[in-house]
Amino acid sequence: MKTIKGPAIFLAQFAGDEAPFNSLDEIGKWAARLGYKGVQLPSWDGRLFDLKQAAESQTYADEVKGKLASHGLEITELSTHLQGQLVAVHPAYDDAFDGFAPESVRRNPAARQQWAVQQLKYAAQASRRLGLSAHASFSGALAWPYVYPWPQRPAGLVEAAFDELAKRWKPILDVFDEAGVDICYEIHPGEDLHDGVSYEMFLERVGDHPRARLLYDPSHFVLQQLDYLDYVDIYHERIGIFHVKDAEFRPTGRQGVYGGYQGWVDRAGRFRSLGDGQVDFPALFSKFAQYGFEGWAVLEWECALKHPEDGAAEGARFIADHIIRVAERAFDDFAASGVDDAANRRMLGI
C-alpha cells in the first residue's frame, strides 16, 4: 500500500485576468497559502503556461518547475482537456467546439484536428521535460449524439465510431509511450469514453495500449448513477489520475438523469463543493489506499452554489483530512509468534 499524495488543485477553473489568478507565480503563491502541495496545469492557458515552449525548451520547463517549487509546489500533471476534445468532434458540435481552437483553424475541422493532434504531441514532450508520468485529457466524441437515440441506430454505427476514435488516438498514444507518459482519459459525459463499457471498447481497439489509462472523477458517476466505488475495484490498475470532486443526484417527479435542459442550480444532478454532495469520500480514499494508488488527490472545483475561492480553501483542508497515511505494519503484529514450520504442522494436525 502507498499513501496518496496531496492535496493538489486543478487550476483551470481559477485562472483569470485578475491577480492573483493571471500568472503562474501569483496563482502558485495563492494555492500554496491555502495548503496545496501540487497543481495540475491547464496547457491551453497562456497566462499560466506555454505548452509549445515547454515541449521544445528544457530551460523553460525547468523555470516553470522552479517557479512553483519556490512556493513549495509540484506539478502533478498537465491537462489537454480542450485539445483532446478536438481530436474527435461530431459535425453537430463543430461550431460549439471551434472556440477551443485558435482562429486560424476555426471553421476548418480537418485543420482543427491536426492542430489538436500536434498539441497532444507537444504535451507528451512537455510532460517528459517536466518529469511527469501522467497526463490528463478528453477522448473527444463521434458517437455521443447517438447515446440514447430515436430513431434506432443503424447497425454498426457505434462500432465504426470507436474504430475511427482508436485510429486517431493510437499514433498519439505511441508518442506518449516514447515519452514515458500515460494519457489518462477523463471518463465524462459528452465524451465517447463516458463509462467502463465505452472505455473497454476503446481499449480493445488500441490493443490494450499500456498508455491508455483513466482519469477518475466520482462526480460524473454520481450524475449518471454508476457505482463509483465498484468502478475503482474494477479499474484500479488503469487509474492514473484522481480528480476529487463532489456531486449530488436529486431526482424528482419532473426530472432525472436526462434533466440537462435546466441551469446547473435546477438540475437533478449537479456538481457541489467537497463535502456538500453525496460522494462517500471516506470509502473512496480507503479504496485508493487499499490499492496503493501512487498519484495525487487533485481538487477539481465545480459547484452550482458556492464561491470558487471558498471551495478552494475548504477543498485543501478536506483532502488533507481524508488522505489515509497507510500503515507500515499490520495492527496485530504485536501478537506475532514468529515462523515455526513444525508448530504450524502441529496446529494443523499434519
Textual characterization of the structure:
40% of the residues lie in helices and 14% in strands. With 350 residues, the protein is α/β, with parallel strands linked by helices. Strands 1-2-3-4-5-6-7-10 form an eight-stranded parallel beta barrel, surrounded by five helices. The protein has a two-stranded antiparallel ribbon with strand order 8-9. α10 (228-235) packs parallel to α11 (281-290).
Could you provide a short overview of the structure?
The chain is of the alpha/beta class. Helices cover 40% and strands 14% of the residues.
Itemize the secondary structure elements and their pairings.
Elements: E1 5-10, H1 24-34, E2 38-42, H2 51-56, H3 58-69, E3 74-80, H4 81-85, H5 94-98, H6 109-129, E4 134-137, H7 157-179, E5 182-186, H8 196-205, E6 212-216, H9 218-223, H10 228-235, E7 239-244, E8 246-249, E9 269-272, H11 281-290, E10 296-299, H12 308-322, H13 341-348
Parallel strand pairs: 1-2, 1-10, 2-3, 3-4, 4-5, 5-6, 6-7, 7-10
Antiparallel strand pairs: 8-9
Helix pairs in contact: 6-7, 7-8, 10-11
Mean pLDDT: 96
What's the N-to-C terminus distance?
34 Å
Major sheet: size, sense and barrel closure?
A: 8 strands, parallel, barrel
- Judged by helices, strands and strand pairing, the structural class is alpha/beta
DSSP strand content: 5-15%
Radius of gyration from the alpha-carbon trace, in angstroms: 22 Å
Number of helices: 13
**Which H/E pattern describes the elements?**
EHEHHEHHHEHEHEHHEEEHEHH
Number of strands: 10
Return residue spans where pLDDT drops below 50 for at least 5 consecutive residues.
none
What oligomeric state best describes the polypeptide chains here? single chain
Strand arrangement, largest sheet?
Answer: 1-2-3-4-5-6-7-10
Global morphology = globular
Question: What proportion of the residues is helical, as a percent range?
Answer: 40-55%
